[in-house]
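During the no-cost extension, the postdoctoral fellow (Dr. R.K.) reprocessed legacy sequence entries with the updated structure-token encoder. One reprocessed record is reproduced below for audit purposes.
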Amino acid sequence: MLEALTIPPVPEGLAARIAARIDAKTKPPGSLGRIEDLAIALGLAQRRDDPEADPAELMIFAADHGIVAEGVSAWPAEVTAQMVLNFLGGGAAANVFARAAGVGVQVIDAGVASDLPVAPGLVRAGIRRGTRNAAAEDALSPAEVEAALEFGAALARDAAARGVRVIALGEMGIGNTSTAALLAHAVEGLPLAPLAGPGAGLDAPGVTRKIAILERAAARRPGRLAPLDALAAFGGFEIAAMAGALIGAASAGVAVLVDGYISTAAAMVALAARPEARASCLFAHRSHEPGHRLMLAHLGVDPLLDLDMRLGEGTGALLAVPIVRAAARMLAEMATFESAGVSGRGGA
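Re-encoded structure tokens follow.
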């Protein structure tokens, strides 16, 4: 799947053309700061001079992680399924932020271990209920990795066919900060201990225990791993599906708003496999989770927001949507000096 999807190159001179359009607007050059950069980035992501930010859609990928059995999380595994029901009921922070931003929400069971009822609006991957325990064995088989990638890519391409122009990546999965740390370590070679933070509320002794468990898991498959091998070794289904969604979105000319720590791990995996998808990524915010800062620094990314958030669910990406919309509308609607009859800056 990763090789089969063609990701179009960024057209030559596109950034310069968009920058020239921005400079012709009724304002001093550069006076809108990073909004100008964002408008260019959105155009590059969509491979077009006239990018759009609507409609936008949040995809929340949910899955469970077998490594939770080792005690890496302060929360029990069944919370994943409970939160899926909360998403479906519209009561989670992501739902509230999505309503505030006017963004549609798709709830996706990428590999939840607990029973979930048949529910309107719930999309199911149907691959496996949760991963195996990565501290003891490979979390996923190669076939399961491929299925999860293809599932995510198909969802993104379907969204593009429905006219979605921006996909925000969100997730839910008890234990997934452990998996994200293992993936960043395996794929990019980042040191493991600084990647392992408190997640959803571990105290200091809990973090120390978590690091020891992750070091044991990493020792099973030492050294740098290829992206698909890392997903097989450590999981998880929601991360693999998000990686597939990013690649699928890039192939369809849809911009991807990468949320926080877990979504960035998915982006790392996707970009290691398909580096040409990098232009499709807009990084929404800097999570308070320590490992996320390390990831962003490694990628050379300065995200749009830094609000000390660490919830996940796509909440940071949702808060960035209005800023992306403003950048797109500035490019599309703001008058030029010529159209407004405003005198431009003269020479000296």
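Residues 41 and 279 are 7 Å apart (CA to CA). The chain has a mean pLDDT of 95. The remaining legacy entries will be reprocessed before the final report is submitted.
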